[in-house]
Specification:
The complex is a heterotrimer.
Chain A lengths: L2 E11 L6 E12 L4 E5 L6 H8 L7 E6 L9 H8 L2 E4 L11 H6 L8 H9 L4 H9 L16 H14 L4 E5 L7 H18 L2 E5 L3 H7 L2 E6 L2 E7 L5 H7 L11 H7 L7
Helix pairs in contact in A: 5-6
Chain B lengths: L13 H21 L3 H4 L2 H12 L8 H36 L5 H16 L2 H12 L3 H25 L4 H8 L4 H35 L6 H11 L3 H31 L1
Helix pairs in contact in B: 4-5, 4-7, 4-9, 4-10, 4-11, 5-7, 6-7, 7-9, 8-9, 9-10, 9-11, 10-11
Chain C lengths: L14 H21 L10 H12 L8 H36 L5 H6 L4 H19 L2 H12 L3 H26 L2 H9 L4 H36 L5 H11 L3 H29 L1
The chains are: A alpha/beta, B mainly alpha, C mainly alpha.
């Protein structure tokens, strides 16, 4: 089992309301190793929080969480650190420092495997540009290998973030809205590459998406979240139009993220 | 409908008036307690002897052998300031990590206290103390500048780090990178231009400090100045002062140009 | 597309430049290490360690006899007095220089678009004077003044007055020139004198910046007057110099503690002043 959540709740102090409220409420989920799941739901539903919880970025308030068969928050600091190396979280905003070169930004995916001195040496001179090149080539970005991140467009940056994922040695990919800045053709290609990689490694893939059609057409299992709760968790064949409509009821389904909700999600301070 | 008109707020609040009065009192007390003989200071006698003194400076000594000595002193002073600032850049970053809270709040408070002490004590006082360990000469000056500047830069760097959005570094750590490696890969690239700008600006200050550290024995132009003044060799002293001014101007210009290049890039 | 073995090599284009830059840096570093007599191993040799240990062990306990503490308190007050008096004189000197150097108060410029020649010359001289005053390190002024007026606080006060009038003058001129010129210009156009234009036009707009910078310089002046004590200009600096010459570790540690507290207090006072008067 990759991930097992039982009745998990995550609370955070909201700047909007005077009391803290639950980002995730009584969530139960079981994901086997190698499964590919799409996470859908309106803005502010808690998709980002769920992905961060599974990435062991913060503690849960109540309930159980087990990752690869162990409880991450019962481990020692060092053991949890080793566990994190097997997980890869790709946040919505590509975590690429603007003035850095693409090659270094992509190779940062290897950091969990490198010693301190290897990491510093690679800063001075990239130790494995070929691997980065191959990863970028799968997204058709190989020409940007030595370009600076701030010279790339939004879509190119997103795909670079995915290239970092390819370079990592993780057994589970937790990907947050990887296609938001991509046009339909690129979105399809990127998603295909992502899924190919997950399949070849037998890695678990949990991907949150706004494009419900893509989710339904590419993922065998769909989980719908709304206001911090799981509304449905079903194979794609069992998901009906009515269920989707009910999930997104009262929301402008524009595919754009509600900035307030995104801000709120980002307010859970990571704990290590 | 006869409302009493509220009196307008005073132009200056009473608390501020009290403050200004206090400042004035401080100023008067200062002048009073110092018992400076103003009359004597600005008397005709004093003016004459001052002019005599100043006339002794012209013309400045320009003999070739002396100019070579000045070049040597300039190089010593330049080395002191550059090495000291360079060392402080590295140690400043090293101390900025705990001082920005990356290793807990206890470490943060403690290191910030240390940094405060380091920068409160002026470079000259550090030089006087470090002469004991390092002996006479520019090495003590380099160390004094390094220690003091570490306090200044460490604090500036820590504040810059704390103002940095933590998302990129946090993501690397969530994915299994160690805190220090995550710092080097995610945070340092973002603030490096700012850090270097602070450092270059500090270099301008340090060249002035290095110039005078020699007065207590730390080598360079300062030591030459003290030496020639104590022997009443005014013309040589004048040359040294001019050399100091030229060196400061050149370093200011270099620092300005480098900082422009940094922000242009 | 799978990568062809022959094309699998992607060298870093920036590598050459980095190597060159490193070599140049080392080339510049080498003579500096020699000129600076940079020998860190000196710190670890027996003689140096012995001297350091001996000195540092005198630090505890810090000297705290009554007479000594009173002496230090008096010296600390003298330092504050030197700084305050020096800064006040600097203000008095800076104001006329600023007025001369600020071109936004030039009536003739406003009329003809160019300043009168004599006016322009005076402005240039005022600016150069300000530059000279603040470029010469204050310790050098102190060294010279000690030889003219003798040892003691007078030299310190004058040195601060000279250096800081240059600094204050330059910054005041910049602040005033960058502030809203409109208010000043309209006053001048309507016939007010230059001083009045300054007080009612430029000053209110920039008051908080001016106050902020001046209080910052007051803190610097306190540090400066301690430093000048080492060449005989009085205050706690002179006391520290005497104690260091006698290697009296306990006295030095007391003075360092008091000095750090003094700087912290001055910092607090200055922050408070800036909030209140800004």
């Amino acid at each position: 089992m990759s991930f097992v959540l039982r009745c998990t709740s995550v609370r955070y102090a909201s700047t909007e309301r005077s009391d803290s409220f639950h980002a995730l409420n009584d969530v139960s989920l079981s994901i086997a190793q190698g499964e590919q799941i799409a996470l859908i739901g309106p803005s502010g539903a808690g998709k980002t929080t769920l992905l961060h919880t599974m990435a062991c970025a913060h503690r849960t308030e109540s309930g159980e969480l087990s990752v690869f068969g162990v409880e991450p928050w019962a481990l020692s600091h060092a053991e949890r650190h080793a566990l994190r190396a097997r997980l890869f979280l790709a946040p919505q905003t590509p975590p690429l420092p603007p003035r850095q070169r693409v090659v270094t930004a992509v190779l940062a995916g290897c950091l969990p495997q490198w010693s301190f001195w290897q990491a510093i040496a690679s800063l001075v001179r990239p130790s494995d540009p070929d691997t980065a090149y191959d990863a970028l080539a799968r997204f058709n970005l190989q020409d940007k290998l030595y370009a600076r991140v701030d010279r790339l467009s939004g879509g190119e940056r997103q795909r670079c973030g995915m290239a970092r994922l390819l370079v990592s040695k993780a057994d589970a990919f937790l990907v947050d809205e990887p296609l938001s800045a991509l046009d339909p053709t690129l979105a399809l290609q990127t998603l295909a590459t992502l899924q190919q990689e997950a399949t070849s490694r037998n890695a678990t893939l949990v991907c949150s998406l706004h494009q419900v059609e893509l989710a339904l057409s590419h993922f065998p299992r769909i989980v719908g979240l709304r206001e911090g709760r799981i509304v449905f968790d079903a194979p794609r064949a069992a998901v009906t139009e009515a269920m989707i409509a009910e999930l997104y009821r009262n929301e402008k389904h524009t595919g754009q993220d509600d900035p307030v909700a995104t801000q709120a999600d980002a307010h859970i301070t990571p704990q290590f | 409908m006869n409302q009493r008109r509220a009196s307008p707020p005073p132009i200056i609040e009473p608390a501020t008036i009290a403050l200004l009065v206090g400042m004035l009192a401080l100023v008067c007390a200062s002048f009073y307690s110092l018992t400076i003989q103003w009359g004597e200071l600005f008397s005709a006698d004093a003016m004459r002897s001052s002019l005599e003194f100043l006339r002794g400076f012209a013309p400045p000594e320009l003999a070739w052998t002396f100019l070579v000595k000045i070049a040597g002193g300039t190089l010593e002073t330049l080395s002191m300031s550059t090495l000291g600032t360079g060392i402080a850049f590295v140690t400043g970053i090293a101390l900025a990590l705990p001082a920005s809270g990356r290793f807990g709040s206890v470490a943060r408070s403690f290191i910030r206290l240390v940094l405060n002490i380091l920068r409160s004590i002026p470079e000259l006082v550090w030089a006087v103390i470090l002469l004991i360990a390092a002996g006479l000469g520019p090495f003590a000056g380099t160390l004094a500048l390094a220690v003091h500047t570490t306090g200044v830069l460490g604090r500036l760097f820590a504040d810059a780090l704390e103002n940095l959005p933590p998302a990129h570094e946090a993501t690397l750590r969530i994915n299994g990178a160690s805190p220090i490696t995550a710092f080097f890969y995610a945070s340092l690239p973002q603030i490096l231009p700012q850090l270097m700008s602070y450092t270059l600006y500090r270099w301008e200050n340090n060249i002035r400090a290095a110039a005078i550290l020699g007065v207590v024995g730390a080598g360079g132009l300062g030591q030459m100045l003290k030496y020639h003044l104590s022997l009443f060799q005014m013309q040589q002293a004048a040359s040294v002062i001019i050399a100091m001014l030229l060196m400061i101007t050149v370093v200011d210009a270099a620092s300005f140009w480098l900082r422009r290049k940094l922000t242009g890039n | 597309m799978t990568s062809n073995a022959a094309f699998a090599h992607h060298p870093d284009p920036a590598w050459r430049g980095r190597i060159t830059a490193t070599l140049i840096a080392l080339l510049l570093l080498w003579p500096m290490l020699i000129a600076g007599e940079f020998k860190p191993w000196i710190l670890l040799d027996a003689q140096s360690l012995g001297a350091t240990w001996h000195f540092l062990s005198g630090f505890f306990p810090p000297a705290h006899s009554r007479e000594f503490l009173l002496l230090i308190l008096e010296a600390t007050w003298q330092t504050i007095a030197i700084a305050t008096a020096g800064l006040t004189l600097a203000l008095l000197g800076a104001i006329p220089l600023t007025l001369l150097a600020t071109s936004s108060l030039s009536v003739s410029r406003m009329e003809s678009g160019r300043m009168r020649f004599a006016g322009a010359v005076i402005r240039q001289i005022a600016r150069w004077l300000l530059v000279l005053l603040r470029s010469v390190p204050e310790l050098v002024w102190a060294l010279l003044l000690v030889r003219i007026v003798g040892l003691g606080p007078t030299a310190g006060v004058l040195a601060i007055a000279l250096t800081y009038s240059g600094m204050l003058g330059k910054v005041y001129a910049e602040i005033l020139e960058s502030s809203e010129a409109h208010a000043t210009q309209s006053l001048l156009k309507n016939g007010s004198g230059r001083l009045a234009a300054l007080f009612y036009g430029a000053l209110p707009a920039s008051a908080s910046e001016l106050v902020s910078y001046t209080t910052f310089r007051w803190e610097c002046a306190i540090r400066g007057s301690v430093v000048m004590g080492f060449v005989g200009a009085g205050g706690i600096g002179q006391r520290m110099d005497e104690s260091m010459k006698m290697l009296a570790g306990n006295e030095v540690s007391t003075m360092l503690i008091i000095f750090v507290l003094l700087v912290a207090c001055a910092d607090l006072v200055s922050t408070f002043l800036r909030k209140r008067l800004g």
